[in-house]
Task: inverse folding
């Protein structure tokens, strides 16, 4: 397929409203053509809140991973982190689209990603902490991906078929993310004195934020078995530490919860960067 | 995907000491219900649902949609890749084509959709709708035999059987980076290859190198 051919196709798509290829705002609905009715018996409020929270975890997590672009230790690592971020971005798009269908507002993914301020986000705060060094990034990625994988495995049987399908698809991707993080944690923890010291520091920095993940029960209303997911996260966290020769402290959890809207000072600057182009040029597409 | 029980302990199988158990598990699960809908790894392009034969032009529509090429792996058609799920007439007479994304964030889906609409317009179908199907999720097991040959001919190693764990997804805790399935070199055929990175130029490919001929190559990783 020639580029010219492709451009013609995309232009034709844009004209009839069927699609547009744009890197910016103006993407088409990622749930295009999916049956979007909410089944009887599903609490639409709880479903919308969960989809929004899981979408926010993914969007904010993807943005932090993107901060490694041009700055990763190796080209291969940069590609990996960008790919992981891309998977999460795809999950966020689907989850935001579902949120807007269910909450009755009809908002689309752009509305959620670009037009909300920090206090409207519901991601866990671990996702928004500064990028940190590579060791901290791997500790955070392990925690977030292990927890999300455990939740998504359970949500694959959710009574809402759209959320269930998003979760079932995400499980396959998250298994690769978790494996990537665990591989690096073991290698760094089991490496030189310096790498082990920094990996331990990364674990110690992320550790106190895990309590917030374990305390989140918002998935229970959709069959998510939050307690089971929290236990699985704990086990992955500890087993990986053991294999890496790291110690897991009895960290006092930071009070509060991102799920309730409490934020660190780090989210607003992150969003300012993420949202700047969309807000400077509302509705722009190219 | 079966829902794990609510037990607070996770089965030890979550932490897999080696690959053999994972592969054995995958082998046991081959042909699970989610995949049985797509026999022989081929794409589930819908057959003539009303059984009235090809007189209604659907065969032509199906052929046009099947010939559209993947923008990132252009040696494959969307049918070869297994993302083309069905081609059928909707109640209003439009041709409805169902596509499934490979990865949630696959940026090629919009191109695939636009290209499919164009191909059907060119084939004489003015009313075309492309819908997205998320369930069941795409698997590399759906890449056709022809698609696998085309990948290999372009020096991209085709995927092996996709893992289908029914319980917790195994996590391998190993100090080496070669804990990935055995993949033969698409250039020299040697089985002595190692993984450089599980992520590569696109979401669906890993980067490997051959220890015999020393060439790096890409591998469509199992999902």
Result:
């Amino acid at each position: 397929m020639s580029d010219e051919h492709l451009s013609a196709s995309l232009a034709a798509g844009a004209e009839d409203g069927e699609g547009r290829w744009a890197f910016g705002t103006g993407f088409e609905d990622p749930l295009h053509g999916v049956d979007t009715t909410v089944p009887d018996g599903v609490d639409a409020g709880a479903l919308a809140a969960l989809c929004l929270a899981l979408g926010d975890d993914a969007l904010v997590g993807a943005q932090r991973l993107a901060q490694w672009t041009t700055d990763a230790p190796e080209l291969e690592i940069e590609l990996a982190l960008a790919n992981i971020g891309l998977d999460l971005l795809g999950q966020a798009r689907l989850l935001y689209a579902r949120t807007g269908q269910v909450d009755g507002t009809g908002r689309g993914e752009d509305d959620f990603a670009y037009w909300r301020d920090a206090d409207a986000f519901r991601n866990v705060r671990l996702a928004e902490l500064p990028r940190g060094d590579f060791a901290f990034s791997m500790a955070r990625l392990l925690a977030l991906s292990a927890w999300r994988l455990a939740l998504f495995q359970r949500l694959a049987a959710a009574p809402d078929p759209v959320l269930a399908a998003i979760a079932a698809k995400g499980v396959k991707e998250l298994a690769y993310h978790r494996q990537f993080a665990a591989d690096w944690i073991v290698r760094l923890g089991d490496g030189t004195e310096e790498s082990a010291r920094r990996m331990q520091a990364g674990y110690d920095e992320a550790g106190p934020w895990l309590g917030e993940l374990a305390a989140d029960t918002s998935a229970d209303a959709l069959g998510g078995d939050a307690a089971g997911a929290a236990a699985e996260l704990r086990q992955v966290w500890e087993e990986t530490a053991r294999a890496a020769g790291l110690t897991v402290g009895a960290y006092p959890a930071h009070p509060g919860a991102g799920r309730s809207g409490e934020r660190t000072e780090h989210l607003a600057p992150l969003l300012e960067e993420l949202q700047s182009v969309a807000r400077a040029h509302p509705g722009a597409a190219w | 995907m079966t829902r794990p029980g609510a037990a607070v302990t996770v089965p030890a199988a979550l932490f897999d000491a080696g690959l053999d158990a994972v592969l054995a598990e995958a082998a046991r699960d081959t042909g699970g219900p989610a995949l049985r809908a797509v026999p022989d790894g081929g794409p589930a392009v819908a057959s003539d649902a009303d059984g009235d034969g090809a007189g209604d032009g659907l065969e032509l529509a199906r052929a046009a949609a099947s010939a559209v090429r993947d923008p990132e792996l252009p040696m494959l058609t969307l049918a070869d890749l297994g993302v083309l799920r069905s081609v059928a007439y909707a109640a209003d007479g439009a041709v409805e084509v169902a596509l499934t994304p490979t990865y949630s964030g696959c940026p090629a889906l919009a191109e695939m959709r636009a290209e499919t609409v164009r191909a059907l317009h060119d084939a004489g179908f003015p009313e075309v709708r492309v819908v997205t199907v998320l369930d069941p999720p795409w698997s590399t097991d759906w890449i056709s035999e022809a698609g696998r040959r085309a990948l290999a001919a372009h020096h991209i190693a085709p995927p092996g059987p996709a893992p289908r764990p029914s319980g917790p997804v195994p996590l391998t805790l190993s100090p080496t980076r070669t804990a990935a399935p055995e993949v033969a070199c698409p250039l020299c055929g040697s089985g002595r290859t190692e993984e450089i990175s599980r992520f590569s130029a696109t979401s669906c490919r890993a980067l490997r190198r051959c220890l015999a001929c020393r060439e790096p190559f890409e591998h469509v990783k199992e999902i």
Q: What stands out?
A: Residues 1-26 of chain A have pLDDT under 50 and may be disordered.
